Structure formats: C-alpha cells, structure tokens
# Entry
Amino acid sequence: MSSLRNQIIRLAHAKPELRKHLLPILKEARPSDCLKKNDVLSRKKKYRDVLKGLEACYGESIREKKVQQAWHYVHDRLYEADDQEEADMDYLNAMEDAQTKFRLTEAENDLLEWIGDVNGFVSYPR
# Structure
C-alpha cells in the first residue's frame, strides 16, 4: 500500500498546476516532525502505542513480523562479540544489515531502533 505522502508526490508530479498547493502539505507533514511533536518514540511508551504512532506519522502499515525477524537477527549477532566496544559496533552493523536484509521501511526501522533502545542497547545514530 502506498503512503499518503507518496500519493501526494505522484499527484504533484502528474499535475504541475497543483504543486503550489501540494508542496506546503508535504513540508508540514514530515514524519520526523510528527514523531517529535507526539513523542512517539519515548522509552516510556508501550509497544502498541509506539506502533500506532509510527503508522500514523508515516501514513503506512508496519509489517510487525518483519520487524520481529529483524530484531532476532540483530539480537543473535550481539552474542558474537568479545567485549562491550565490539558489541556496540556489532549492534550498529547488525542494525544496518537488518534494514537491508529485511527491506524495512523507515517506520519499521524506527520501530526496530525503539525495540533496541528499550532493551538497553546502544541507540542507533540518527
């Protein structure tokens, strides 16, 4: 399913005369602004609240099973490290690999990062 943002972009491309009206909507509706305004990724929030908040901000459904598979992939890679510094690097590398391997969207990747944060792992740099 295409996100509302992508539909607006396609419409602006197809009908240039509407661009002056559509582009301000795109600027106002950036997911990052929505995430900050609603404190969606707070460690204090429950999983379901974070999931619904991400879906609302990004305007798309999150494939929970993909995110869970990605988390297990990341988690399994952490046990290969010999020390904390190596574990931190392994975590960052595993997060990047998981995003590619499981073809996560930005919303799904944000959920994966939130799961890592609430489980006490190093925050993924943004």
Remarks:
- The chain is about 70% helix and 0% strand.
